[in-house]
Amino acid sequence: MRLAVIPGDGIGPEVVSEALKVLGEVVPTAEITNYDLGAARWHATGELLPESVLGELRQHDAILLGAVGDPTVPSGILERGLLLRLRFEMDHHVNLRPARLYPGVRGPLADAGDVDMVVVREGTEGPYAGTGGLLRKDTEHEIATEVSVNTAFGIRRVVADAFNRAEGRPRKHLTLVHKTNVLEYAGSLWSRIVEEVSLEHPEVTVAYSHVDAATIHLVTDPSRFDVIVTDNLFGDIITDLAAAVTGGIGLAASGNLDITRRNPSMFEPVHGSAPDIAGQGLADPTAAVLSVSLLLDHLGQKESARRIEASVAFDLATRDQASPGATQAIGDRLAALVSSNVRTAG
Amino acid sequence: MRLAVIPGDGIGPEVVSEALKVLGEVVPTAEITNYDLGAARWHATGELLPESVLGELRQHDAILLGAVGDPTVPSGILERGLLLRLRFEMDHHVNLRPARLYPGVRGPLADAGDVDMVVVREGTEGPYAGTGGLLRKDTEHEIATEVSVNTAFGIRRVVADAFNRAEGRPRKHLTLVHKTNVLEYAGSLWSRIVEEVSLEHPEVTVAYSHVDAATIHLVTDPSRFDVIVTDNLFGDIITDLAAAVTGGIGLAASGNLDITRRNPSMFEPVHGSAPDIAGQGLADPTAAVLSVSLLLDHLGQKESARRIEASVAFDLATRDQASPGATQAIGDRLAALVSSNVRTAG
Ligand SMILES: CC(C)[C@H](C(=O)O)[C@@H](O)C(=O)O
Ligand SMILES: CC(C)[C@H](C(=O)O)[C@@H](O)C(=O)O
């Protein structure tokens, strides 16, 4: 396994180092190459993602990213020049974001129930296409447009992926989240494609929720969701909310997948670089470790993936929630659990 | 006061009738004209909002709407042909949505704190402009676009309104919610205008939150928000979430305001027509009553507006939460509280 690692900024390097420790327990032979991208490189050289680096990244089986971002870099630069550029260049069309409330974890809801969902967020089009512009800038008649671009090709492949995932889960339930009553063109295309693809999956039950109503359900009845499929922007919003409901972005992992496998997929914790706590051993590496589990699952190493997730579940159920330990201590615990080979309750 | 009333569908007429009962206690001389718009009229005549009705509505000081919608009408028809059409025709640029967790009300959060915010949602542009289309429909190469249209004119007037409101509140705090790191054109225009207008309001502190992070804050720390200003679509999403956090859309009121007063403003509960419980006296008219309070406030009858809100607060604090009573009983209680003229704790 050839793995490219982008530790990034802030707590990125700290959590990545624990994630690799855990990976080492199941794939000791992984070949790891580090790529120095993020705020520091941009400050030093002005580079965000040089073509040569992009070419090298493509030679790997997968990419693990820690976190990117620093208050010294103007908003949008690293996001668009590095994070989103990677997603678009690598055709990461399925942005996979599981949200599970693990036993022992207390989220903000008084009574969340049994939450175990996965959001399949489209990753390469919609309002993220970057199409738009400014007219009459800096005058009182200025106009800004943003164009959401939605293609049958782009939607069908993520909808198909979402149905496949739903089919492999016990509840076999899929919810399309959109805003079809207002965004009539994109809404119509998404709805028609979900309907079409559903014909190939008669055992999957299909529901629809407007994005505004979905946010209500996520806080009043999150256990209703199994697989959600949605567009890039709605997915951005509801996955942060779903992460909050299941204990916070400190625990949320994500995969940016090219389902065709033409490009390496990229795995990253949903959290950011948290510069305020960087370098102090305060960051919880759990989301990075769960990202490694998603990575292994994507590469077909299902058993190792499950073992890591089960170890995380065990640790979350048994840790002292008030003081779960330092970054390294959590990483050590998880590595030991994984290596102990014990099948803990997942 | 000349008031146009659109009772609408489902529970709309029931909750409007209680709201008018309460209004009668403070403005017994209000002249009320009912307009029959909604699902029933569309089924009977195919009409959604005839020009003649639009003309008549304009002759009023304000509009009170119950709820519109029925499962027998295809999604989008009433929304775009009636609700959104009213907002656009009447230039309802400020969509005002307070979210307050009243004492005695239990929301879904284990520990919500003291929530009292107001969202100023832009109401006449953004992704709601209806600009977009389908290309190569029903082929595998189909493309759907949605264009978010944002004008300096349109943004400035709602931002100015939001700052004015912030200035009149104890905390004097304003948060812009957007997604400036991705939607760079619209984000740039919104940010620059907030910065400009803030210079005229040095006493108002200004914060910024990406919409995805805002959903996290709304469930982990909602009391941080005072006034939120945001675009039409983000406002749609976060006001539903804010309503859920403060006890549900059954309690949430809204105003669609033309700040210039060229057109009558429209007030409506955030909830829908709830056809499943229609006609059974099960609907809580509180959101409709609070909409009347917003209406009176907008028309300058501040004292009456406050009295109604205080009565609602008193009722919510003292009612049997498990069985608050039938629609009419709640309306009777609120009317009696309002008429008793007692200044209850607001
Ligand atoms: C950082 C930002 C560009 C990104 C996004 O909007 O997709 C982030 O919020 C995420 O969800 O991964
Ligand atoms: C019904 C729908 C068109 C409307 C909107 O999206 O604005 C509703 O969700 C609201 O928030 O008033």
TrEMBL record, chains A, B:
Binding site for substrate: R87, R97, R121, D212
Superkingdom field: Bacteria
InterPro entries named among the record's database cross-references: ICDH/IPMDH (IPR050501), IsoCit/isopropylmalate_DH_CS (IPR019818), IsoPropMal-DH-like_dom (IPR024084), LeuB_actb (IPR023698)
Gene Ontology molecular function: 3-isopropylmalate dehydrogenase activity; magnesium ion binding; NAD binding
Pfam families tied to this protein: Iso_dh (PF00180)
Assembly: Homodimer.
Protein name: 3-isopropylmalate dehydrogenase
Gene: leuB
